[in-house]
Design goal:
The protein is an alpha+beta fold. 17% of the residues lie in helices and 19% in strands. It has one domain. A hairpin with a 5-residue loop joins strand 7 and strand 8.
Length: 214
Amino acid sequence: MTALTLTTALLLPTLTPAQAQPTPAKPTLNAVVTAVPGAKLTHTYRRGCPVPPGRLRLIRMNHWGFDGRIHRGELIVSREAVNPMLYVFGRAFTAKFPIRRMKVMAAYRGSDTAAMKQDNTSAFNCRAVTGSPGKLSQHSYGNAIDINTLENPYVDTAGRVYPPAGRPYLRRDRPVKGMIKRGDVITTAMRKVGWQWGGRWAHPDYQHFSANGR
């Protein structure tokens, strides 16, 4: 028994530092902030919009998807919103809060309706308030964001639900992947940076957060 044990031990190779497998890097938000290329503003910016392109920034960052994997997303916000959003999405990433997709609104030709159908998370889009065509949206300033639009629908003053497929998610008292709730990582982080949640309105907009509460 002793001889067999010694022989087996002698046959085992010793790994050198070069041969040893590296410790896997811990996943991070890995955010990169740049000016916004013109192509990323197609159909979402036009002359007369309240914030010029030079005051907008493109954030490319990682996020957890509904499939449990890390995906690369893009978000356009105002310069002033960069640090608040890096904090919020950094906290969300650490908590593995899932985001279905994060594409700039140029991917949907500026259509909020199309983006909501795809459960997209986005920020800047120079447009009117959905359901109120005469009112300029806070998204036009790059200081508002909509997150997981299907699981967090918007109800306008007439009682219409956007997107229509989000109606079942008006029931908020159950565990649903990607749903935003009072006291969770998203609402807590947003409150920390001073942004307010539309989910607290009389006509709730569960997907919506903004710097000025509108």
